[in-house]
Amino acid sequence: MPLVVNITGVILAGGKSSRFGENKALAHFRGIPMIQRVIESLRQLFPEILLVTNSPGEYGELGVPVVRDIVPDQGPLGGIVTAFQNTLNDRIFVVGCDMPALEPGPILRILAEGGVADAGIPVHDGVREYLMALYSRRLLPRLACCLSEGKLSLRDFFDHLSNVAWVPVEGDSCFNVNTKKDLELLEERDAH
After folding, report:
1. pTM for the full model?
2. Is 24 inside a domain boundary?
3. What is the pLDDT of residues 67-90, one digit of tens each?
4. Strand partners, 66
5. CB atoms within 10 A of CB 120
6. What is the dihedral of CA 86, 80, 44, 29, to 10 degrees?
7. What is the CATH number of the domain that holds 130?
8. CB neighbours of 94 closer than 8 A, spacing ≥ 6?
9. What values do phi and psi take at 49, rounded to 5?
10. Are 173 and 101 within 8 A, CB to CB?
11. Is 94:137 a contact under the CB 8 Å cutoff?
C-alpha cells in the first residue's frame, strides 16, 4: 500500500478517560494496547505520525514522536492546533487513541473525497466523526481563534464552514471506546 507523504497522521490522546476509569489508550484490545493498534493502522499509510497528549511520559515507548498539548485540557480542538504547530505538512489526518478497529480503507476514502476541501469528515450511521478526519492548515487561524476564546466544540466549529467534504463510511473504523462496556462490545463483535 503506498504511503501518503504529504499528510501527517495524528493521534489525540489528551483526554481524561473519566468514563473508562483509567487511561483507555493503554487498555488492551485483542491483547495489544488500543493506542498501539491505532499506531499500526496509521503506519500503513503515513510515514509521519504524531501523538498529541497532556501526559507525554505515558507514551514514550511507542516509537512515534510525542508532543505535549500547547494548551492542556482543551479537548480535540486544542490537540488539532498543537498538531499543526508541530508539522510542516498542510494537512493532517486526526484519529482518537481509542479507535482500535481503525482500518486503512475508510481512511483512504476520506483522504480521496476530502482532498481539496478544508476538511474531510466521515459520517457513520448519521453521526459526524470529527476524530477520524482530514484537516487542512487553512483552518488553523480559525481553530486557534476558537481555542483562544474557549470555544472548543468541533461540532459548533463545523456548523459555520461550507468547504467540508462529508464522507459516508461503514464498518467499525469509527468505533471509539469510551467505557469498558464499549470495549467488551467491540471485542464481542470482533469475535463473530
Report:
1. 0.93
2. yes
3. 999 988 899 999 999 999 999 999
4. 51
5. 25
6. 120
7. 3.90.550.10
8. 10, 12, 76, 79, 80, 83, 130, 131, 132, 133, 134, 135
9. -130, 140
10. yes
11. no
